[in-house]
Amino acid sequence: MLRNCNILFIxxxxxxxxxxxxxxxxxxxxxxxxxxxxxxxAAKQLDTRPAExxxxxxxxxxxxxxxPPAELVAAQALRRLGQPDAALSRLAALARRQPNVxxxxxxxxxxxxxxxxxxxxxxxxxxxxxxxxxxxxxxxLLARELRKVGRDDQAWRADLSGIHASSRDRDLxxxxxxxxxxxxxxxxxxxxxxxxxxxxxPAAARLLGEIHWRRGDMSAxxxxxxRAVATAPGFDLARDFLIRLLLQNNRLTDALAHxxxxxxxxxxxxxxxxxxxxxxxxxGDQAQAAAIYEGLLAQKPDQPQLWQNLGHALKTLGRQADxxxxxxxxVRYLPTMGEAWxxxxxLKTVKLDAADIAVMEQALSMLAPEAAARSEDIFHLHFSLGxxxxxxxxxxxxxxxxxxxxxxxxxxxxxxxxEFAAEVKATEACFTAAFLTRxxxxxxxxxxxxxxxxxxxxxxxxxxxxxxxxxxxxxxMELPEMMIIASRLQSRIDEGEFPDFSTMIASxxxxxxxxxxxxxIDRTRVHRQSDKPRFIDKMPNNWQHVxxxxxxxxxxxxxxxxxxxxxxCFSGWKQHFARGQxxxxxxxxxxxxxxxxxxLMSAFDAAAPGHVHRVHYEHMVADTPGEVARLLDYLGLPFxxxxxxxxxxxxxxxxxxxxQVRQPIxxxxxxHWRHFAPWLGPLEEALRPEIAAYPA
Length: 696
What we know:
This is Bacterial transcriptional activator domain-containing protein. Keywords: TPR repeat, Transferase. One of its GO terms (molecular function) is protein-tyrosine sulfotransferase activity. With 696 residues, this protein is mostly helical. Among the domains are: 14-132, Tetratricopeptide repeat domain (Serine Threonine Protein Phosphatase 5, Tetratricopeptide repeat), CATH 1.25.40.10; 417-693, P-loop containing nucleotide triphosphate hydrolases (Rossmann fold, 3-Layer(aba) Sandwich), CATH 3.40.50. The chain has 35 helices and 5 strands. The protein has helices spanning 14-24, 33-44, 50-63, 68-80, 84-97, 102-115, 118-128, 136-148, 152-166, 170-180, 184-197, 202-214, 218-231, 236-248, 252-262, 270-283, 286-299, 304-317, 320-333, 338-345, 354-367, 375-391, 395-411, 417-430, 433-439, 460-468, 481-494, 501-506, 510-524, 546-552, 565-573, 587-607, 617-622, 624-635, 681-693, and strands at 449-454, 473-477, 534-537, 557-562, 612-616. Strands 2-3-1-4-5 form a 5-stranded parallel sheet, with helices on both faces. The radius of gyration is 33 Å and the shape is elongated.
């Protein structure tokens, strides 16, 4: 067979190739049987002995000058010997006589590409691909050549045609079936074999990347999907997948760059604009995201998910009335949309009325027959009804809905309170005063970060808003970077490199710690929109990593926002969080979590006295000026009146307290949990030592 005849454009048999070329010559000179055999022998040598193939082809041509199959083999051999110019001149002459033979057009296109003659390559391919539309390789080569001459839109469409052709490829279909059936090893073997033959096959690279992603090998997945996109920049589905992988790895600027490209696709796919909006949301650019949602809704307003997304962005921007309208539109078009109802209830300053309660109860009845499939809508509706009935002061009914919502949500999550407590104990045992002294100096010297840690619903958003009102402090959001670094370090234990947490942490050299601290500073830079010298990372769960923060960012400040254990935990239990915080959906478990948190923070206070500044929510409510002054003094910042009028500060706030911090401090929430005291026995039992000691 001629080279690559099974995967490129030589889809005819050798006999058919010769027949088609002979039929196209003028005048026809049928080759003898002996010449046919000789051409076959020369063609078989192309892949392994191209010089011998060339010699045999030239010998044939001395006996049968101009014989098209022999001319083709000679040109193929010349290209394989690194002489594409010589091959091209012979192929071009042959193509003038026989302009529509697929094997010839494919070889001509490759030779022209290798010599830099994009015009001739494009001309050959544009004759070829209509004849062989189901073979992807020609489309991809056409796309590459079109890009070289600046015909980017046509190149994009050629890539898309190549992917469409790949979707019918038997090898790829079999690999995809194997992947979906869980036969990952079979799929990997098949795709590796294909990529060995066709290293520039973007569809195979993307599919192999998805398999690695399913296996949890994110690094390999990224490399393969990036390779697919580099090979075929118009491969929209690969770029879409790559953006999602980049988001999972918190590579937000890279994700935005690819989302900007995808948004220019010639395909009219609103999903690409939505994906770009989701990247912008992650970057904190709510205004641009809202503009995208508004543009899409102007074209098609009956989209409840879009209305909900718009509501989220508007809420974060502080446009409360517009956010309420957006959420109302979402439930108007889809009354069973539980998350939209919860988004309304979660504004805290909105009170759902009797009519809303009736609609939500009816929605629950409608969802009952498909409860297993609609569990997310159902638990959101229970949380929403809990809030509505709480506002109506029907505390017993309110607790009933909160309880059902929490039980359903907890049943869908994996969380082991014993395992978590053991991890906290290991951290507590590691970061002793002696250990910190032994580790000595190290880490990045940057004083920029201000970590606000604690439990959700502890008043941390209030602290953030107060500090963000200062001229030298920028509020960002709950940043995942420290947790990503900590998770990567933990993986070294999980993979067996170290026997335990203390050994792993002790292995960090001063240079390691400096590198990790600088990595944190570099990774968080994308979230900073001003030149203010300090910025806030308000990820509450970072209380688990205060020791690590001390080692890699010794000049960072840590503020522990703390609230009465019953008030804090009950508030967290009745709050549904968009992601994470799996410990909050059971009263006993959230109580245990609070105890673990207090124990670790107390141990760190003993190991590094004064390193953490504690703000008690009740004290901040009772004496705001005094607490703000102490807070700023800890940070080494001059007092500014704007910090006392924090509700006037315009900035994006993404947490559940977004609307509460846009008004002056109020005292209503301090003891609100007492309305539910009759039903909070499991929480009170779990928190008994902390209740007795608070706020000591």
